[in-house]
Design a protein that fits this description.
Layout (H helix, E strand, L loop, with lengths): L1 H12 L4 E5 L5 E4 L2 E4 L7 H11 L5 H7 L1 E8 L3 E9 L3 E9 L2 E4 L1
Antiparallel strand pairs: 1-2, 1-6, 2-3, 4-5, 5-6, 6-7
Length: about 110
């Protein structure tokens, strides 16, 4: 979770409007409408499974299994509140919006 939180913090501090996490591909930030690969380890299946487990609200887990997509809010103390879109293709992918104070940015 430490790397995940560092990515979220870096995204907020760097004014990224989106963060895209997908197994086996670079982490992508959208900054000023430009997609930028982040210098970080590529998400692995094991890492993404831990992230999905940690951030998915218990009441939405069954819906994720059935619909393969959910939207929810996720709060990280000291970083911000995030709107998350989590969807599963053959491999899970996480994206969404970050809301910090009155400013809005996507992650």
């Amino acid at each position: 979770m430490e790397i995940f939180y560092r990515l979220l913090k870096t995204a907020v501090e760097g004014a990224a409007s989106d963060v895209h996490l997908k197994i086996g591909t670079p982490v992508i930030f959208r900054i000023n409408r430009e997609l930028i690969a982040v210098d970080s380890p590529f998400p692995t299946a094991e890492w993404m499974a831990k992230i999905v487990e940690a951030v998915t609200p218990p009441h939405l887990r069954k819906r994720l299994e059935e619909d393969r997509e959910i939207d929810f809010s996720y709060f990280v103390s000291g970083i911000g509140r995030f709107r998350v879109n989590l969807f599963q293709q053959p491999r899970p992918m996480v994206s969404g919006d970050a809301i910090r104070q009155n400013a809005r940015a996507r992650f």
